């Protein structure tokens, strides 16, 4: 039944009441207006359609929902029922259709519904969606009720009980007033950490709006910092739901009272102001609080402005004037960083130190005031945790609001805010999205790795964020891993060569550039061995390999997985993040040890042998995976060398437990001082004490043509030409091209996971150019048919773009609902197009796909990886604007049974070897063994002279010559020396590389 029909029914029922009853109702409250009856009139549907949908922090968190017939239903025959088992966050929402006007609830007193109580003592959050463009771009207003009863109970919530969720959206939001005239629905957040069932029925609006209940007084901010001797100005604004003028006067009595400041620090203020009847909603009065100079050095001091409101609802928080800290050595930017750190540390309490070691998820804050209440040192946005609207401006405002809260602490230590910007500022709609690391590894170009890091840093810092959880320095050894695309490749030498990205992010290795408005603190992750986990070893949910066990000898650990971290530390990387995975060193008899608990590796190797001077940040709630109770998790991780713990939801429990463990003597306070010193050092280097707020001067460059040009070049260089029979590529503008396949015109598939949301998603999720759009701009006549259903006759060549849909982390593990095969639809598109004409197949994916059975029908094959938002870069090489120069960063297997398969393996018989990559627009050297012998002599000379550029050019000539000889007849005797040659090239052994290529040539 349509919602309009429901309202008509309600009106009809009211009309059928006896006259006397109707008169009584009219004199009292109007009839309730149904919102949801749960009889099937509102569907289960996702925005922008109207309907009920679930959501959660990961794939296990969304509850199950159904419309269930129950004899005891409070209204009608059915109720909304469901089950839940939430580890992060989860619930459900009813959004009104975006295509329809928002609803006007301003005539009513509140909202009510029936809840089937379980008497479990759990709090259930209930939220309203007010104002904005639609239900997913609105303010959230929240309250909660406690399930402390059994059976059905009607929960009645006046609109005046709802408070504004500043943690969800920028401080100030859309208008910071519960207007009720443009409502987009409601949401229910279910309890975390317990399995449960629920049932709900008959959501409706009730009562008559009462002007005295609809008026409220709000302040412009909860915190008002002011320099000593300055005057703070607190703005008081009267607001009404529906924005109607006041019917009655509203009086605000104000008085400075309490706080940490003394009478010598400010002039006390006391008074009263009345907003008379008829005052327009939004009218403001300013209260001034003068402070005094006393010449002494002091920490920050607070002056609460107590407000007593008559005739309206008072502000949710008492505003505080904060007299800034002044005169203390740590505030002197002219002092060396180590002296500033030592001074500040000497003044801090254990509670303040513990707060600095705590990182919370911004969406999990119970209140923004918790930042000061718990002295929090850091916040983060997990994947998909964004302000509303998701714009650069909104990000900056949101983070500035959080930083303002930190100014209410004693030493005004700024927050360090972090995000996973792993291929550009992938959290923000409209940002420049780079190829994922696997594609950057395919470029073999350290300069482009640097440039992508520099663009990412500039866009991240322009939104007020100084810290990036990137780059991933994993060495991926098994393509079944759902994080394969986060790696630069399977060879540690390749990973090391791409670590120029660290300088792109941070600037010079000594950290002197970190305070620039276009640089961020980088994070080397995930220490150590995350790319080497064994298939089937994971114990996390349905994951098969991610977060599993890496079982290696100490020699293998050093050579493969630790090697990139030596390079990162030498490059001055500011933070390191341990892996979720476990390390099982063969021969040490310890068995698997969770990396977050591995003191030998973190304290002994990273901080000891490598002399890492930055700080170690945990992964998302990762200490929860350490065996033992929570107190054990905390002390084990801290004693192992972790300095800051990412506890998205448990920030209060963590801080309290950490303090208790120190006081009990189970964590040495020297360990705490070391951790906090490391954290403060990076905050000082970032210039956060001098400029905690966003410098948005570079915001206009986010997604700019200049930045997209870098991404376009990276995308072009990342394309690996695996096969090119008859020189089909590059295409000619004169050719009539038939384009098909699932990934030809899908920016979401093209950008992959970690794009806008954690898992990413298919579709038009952010501005960019798809491969199809790039082809249309670069070429001539183009026919587009996603499923190849359009007639194929009359075309010169087909381009079929196929591959994977987005995923992230263990959700993408093979065996966890994924494999390495093309979908049936993609296979059908390849078969149809390639049977009808000469064809080029582009595989857009985070890892190799098994296409050996179709190689014979494919004329040209390209590994496109996940090229990001700039499909023009792919078209550039297809049409010869740039040559194909990319090389395989991982081995391309013949079958899944071969996995894991990597360069250097004793048995090595792939479809295409590591390092393979044909070229176009470049003349392949002629000759045979004599030419290779001459190239070998030249390579030896270049190696002795330290001529890196010359040496690489010589080996490249030899590789191209050998590839031409091999053609598509890649045998095991050819593949093994060919792949090993590329590893030797990356380690600077040019002569040996040519010798290996010569061996491959002779075997071909």
Structural account:
The structure is a single chain. With 1004 residues, this protein is α/β, with parallel strands linked by helices. It has 25 helices and 37 strands. Strands 1, 3, 4, 6, 9 and 12 form a six-stranded antiparallel beta sheet that branches. The protein has a six-stranded antiparallel beta sheet with strand order 2-5-11-7-8-10, with no helix packed on it. Strands 32-37-36-35-33-34 form a six-stranded mixed beta sheet, with helices on both faces. Strand 28 (582-585) and strand 29 (593-594) form a beta hairpin.
Helix content: 25-40%
Number of helices: 25
Oligomer: single chain
Biggest pleated sheet: 6 strands, antiparallel
Number of strands: 37
* Envelope shape: globular
Supply the helix-strand structural class.
alpha/beta
Rounded Rg: 31 Å
Low-confidence stretches: 1-27
Strand content: 15-25%
Mean pLDDT: 94
- N/C terminus separation: 71 Å
Short description:
It is built from 25 helices and 37 strands. Strands 1, 3, 4, 6, 9 and 12 form a 6-stranded antiparallel β-sheet that branches. Strands 2-5-11-7-8-10 form a 6-stranded antiparallel β-sheet, with no helix packed on it. The protein has a 6-stranded mixed β-sheet with strand order 32-37-36-35-33-34, with helices on both faces.
Itemize the secondary structure elements and their pairings.
Blueprint: H1 3-15, H2 19-27, E1 33-36, E2 51-56, E3 64-69, E4 78-85, E5 90-95, E6 110-118, E7 122-130, E8 139-147, E9 150-158, E10 163-164, E11 183-189, E12 195-206, H3 211-214, E13 215-219, E14 223-226, E15 231-240, E16 250-256, E17 270-275, E18 284-290, E19 301-310, E20 320-323, H4 337-347, H5 350-356, E21 358-361, H6 370-373, E22 378-381, H7 392-406, E23 416-419, H8 437-443, H9 446-461, E24 467-468, H10 492-497, H11 500-506, E25 523-527, E26 549-552, H12 554-570, E27 575-578, E28 582-585, E29 593-594, H13 599-609, E30 615-616, H14 630-640, E31 645-646, H15 651-663, H16 669-685, H17 705-718, E32 720-724, E33 737-740, H18 747-751, H19 771-778, E34 782-784, E35 797-803, H20 824-836, E36 838-844, E37 860-865, H21 871-878, H22 929-945, H23 948-966, H24 972-986, H25 990-1003
Parallel strand pairs: 14-20, 21-22, 21-31, 22-23, 23-24, 25-27, 26-28, 27-30, 33-34, 33-35, 35-36, 36-37
Antiparallel strand pairs: 1-12, 2-5, 3-4, 4-12, 5-11, 6-9, 6-12, 7-8, 7-11, 8-10, 13-15, 15-18, 16-17, 16-19, 19-20, 28-29, 32-37
């Amino acid at each position: 039944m349509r919602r309009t029909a429901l309202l008509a029914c309600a009106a009809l029922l009211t009309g059928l009441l006896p006259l006397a009853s109707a008169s009584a109702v009219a004199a009292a409250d109007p009839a309730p207006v149904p919102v949801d009856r749960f009889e099937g009139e509102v569907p289960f549907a996702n925005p922008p359609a109207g309907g009920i949908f679930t959501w959660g922090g990961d794939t296990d968190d969304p509850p199950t929902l159904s419309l269930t017939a129950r004899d005891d239903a409070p209204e009608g025959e059915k109720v909304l029922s469901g089950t839940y088992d939430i580890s992060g966050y989860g619930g459900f929402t009813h959004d009104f259709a975006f295509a329809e006007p928002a609803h006007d609830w301003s005539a009513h007193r509140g909202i009510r519904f029936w809840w089937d109580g379980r008497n479990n003592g759990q709090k259930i959050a209930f939220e309203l969606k007010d104002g904005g463009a639609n239900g997913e771009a609105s303010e959230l207003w929240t309250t909660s009720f406690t399930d402390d009863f059994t059976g059905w109970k009607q929960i009645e919530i006046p609109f005046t009980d709802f408070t504004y969720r500043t943690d969800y959206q920028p401080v100030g939001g859309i208008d910071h007033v519960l207007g009720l005239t443009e409502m987009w629905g409601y949401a229910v957040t279910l309890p975390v950490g317990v399995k449960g069932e629920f049932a709900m029925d008959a959501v409706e609006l009730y009562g008559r709006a009462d002007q005295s209940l609809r008026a409220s007084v709000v302040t412009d901010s909860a915190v008002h910092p002011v320099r000593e001797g300055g005057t703070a100005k607190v703005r008081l604004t009267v607001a009404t739901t529906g924005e109607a003028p006041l019917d009655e006067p509203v009086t605000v009595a104000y008085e400075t009272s309490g706080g940490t400041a003394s009478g010598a620090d400010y002039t006390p203020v006391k008074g009263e102001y009345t907003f008379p009847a008829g005052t327009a909603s939004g009218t403001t009065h300013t209260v001034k609080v003068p402070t005094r100079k006393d010449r002494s050095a002091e920490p920050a001091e607070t002056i609460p402005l107590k407000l007593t409101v008559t005739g309206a609802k008072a502000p949710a928080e008492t505003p505080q004037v904060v007299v800034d800290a002044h005169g203390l050595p740590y505030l002197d930017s002219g002092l060396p960083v180590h002296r500033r750190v030592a001074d500040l540390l000497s003044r801090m309490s254990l509670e303040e130190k513990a707060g600095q070691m705590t990182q919370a998820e911004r969406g999990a804050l119970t209140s923004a005031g918790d930042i000061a209440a718990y002295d929090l040192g850091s916040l983060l946005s997990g994947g998909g945790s964004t302000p509303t609207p998701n714009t650069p401006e909104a990000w900056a405002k949101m983070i500035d609001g959080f930083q303002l809260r930190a100014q209410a602490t004693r030493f005004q230590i700024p927050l360090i805010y972090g995000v996973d910007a792993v291929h550009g500022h992938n959290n923000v709609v409209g940002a420049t999205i780079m190829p994922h690391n696997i594609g950057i590894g395919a470029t073999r170009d350290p300069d482009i790795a640097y440039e992508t890091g520099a663009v990412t840093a500039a866009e991240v810092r322009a939104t007020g964020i100084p810290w990036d959880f990137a780059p991933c320095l994993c060495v991926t050894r098994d393509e079944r891993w759902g994080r394969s695309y986060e790696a630069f490749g399977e060879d540690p030498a390749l990973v090391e060569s791409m670590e120029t990205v660290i300088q792109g992010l941070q600037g010079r290795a000594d950290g002197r550039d970190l305070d620039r408005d276009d640089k961020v603190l980088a994070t080397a992750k995930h220490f150590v061995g995350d790319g080497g986990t064994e298939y089937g070893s994971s114990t996390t949910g349905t994951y098969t390999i991610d977060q599993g066990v890496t079982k290696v000898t100490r020699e293998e650990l050093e050579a493969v997985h630790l090697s990139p971290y030596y390079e990162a530390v030498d490059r001055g990387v500011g933070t390191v993040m341990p892996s979720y995975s476990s390390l099982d060193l063969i021969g040490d008899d310890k068995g698997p040890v969770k990396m977050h608990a591995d003191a030998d590796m973190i304290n002994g190797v990273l901080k000891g042998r490598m002399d890492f001077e930055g700080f170690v940040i945990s992964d998302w709630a990762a200490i929860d995976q350490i065996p033992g109770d929570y107190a054990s998790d905390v002390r084990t991780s801290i004693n192992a060398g972790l300095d800051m713990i990412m506890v998205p939801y448990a920030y209060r429990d963590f801080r309290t437990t950490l303090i208790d463990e120190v006081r009990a003597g189970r964590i040495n306070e020297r360990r705490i001082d070391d951790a906090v010193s490391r954290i403060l050092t990076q905050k000082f280097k970032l210039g956060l004490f001098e400029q905690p707020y966003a410098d948005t001067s570079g915001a206009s460059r986010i997604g700019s043509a200049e930045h997209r040009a870098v991404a376009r070049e990276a995308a072009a260089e990342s394309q690996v030409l695996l096969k090119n029979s008859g020189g089909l590529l590059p295409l000619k503008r004169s050719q009539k091209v038939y384009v098909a396949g699932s990934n030809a015109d899908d920016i979401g598939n093209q950008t992959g996971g970690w794009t806008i949301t954690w898992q990413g998603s298919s579709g038009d999720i952010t501005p960019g150019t798809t491969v199809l759009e790039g082809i249309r701009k670069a070429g001539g006549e183009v026919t587009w048919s996603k499923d190849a259903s359009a007639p194929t006759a009359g075309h010169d060549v087909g381009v079929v773009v196929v591959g994977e849909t987005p995923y992230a982390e263990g959700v993408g593990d093979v065996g966890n609902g994924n494999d390495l095969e093309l979908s049936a639809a993609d296979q059908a598109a390849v078969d149809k197009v390639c049977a009808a004409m000469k064809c080029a197949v582009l595989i857009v994916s985070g890892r190799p796909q098994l296409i050996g059975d179709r190689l014979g029908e494919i004329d040209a094959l390209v590994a496109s990886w996940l090229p990001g938002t700039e499909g023009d870069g792919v078209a550039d090489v297809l049409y010869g604007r740039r040559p194909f120069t990319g090389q395989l960063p991982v081995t391309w297997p013949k079958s899944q049974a071969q996995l894991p398969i990597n360069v250097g393996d004793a048995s090595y018989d792939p479809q295409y070897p590591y390092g393979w990559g044909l070229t176009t627009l470049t003349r392949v050297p002629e000759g045979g063994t004599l030419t290779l012998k001459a190239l070998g002599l030249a390579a030896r000379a270049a190696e002795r002279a330290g001529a890196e550029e010359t040496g690489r050019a010589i080996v490249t000539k030899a590789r191209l010559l050998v590839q031409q000889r091999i053609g598509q007849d890649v045998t095991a005797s050819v593949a093994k020396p060919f792949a090993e040659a590329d590893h030797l090239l990356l380690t600077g052994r040019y002569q040996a590389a040519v010798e290996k290529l010569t061996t491959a040539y002779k075997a071909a």
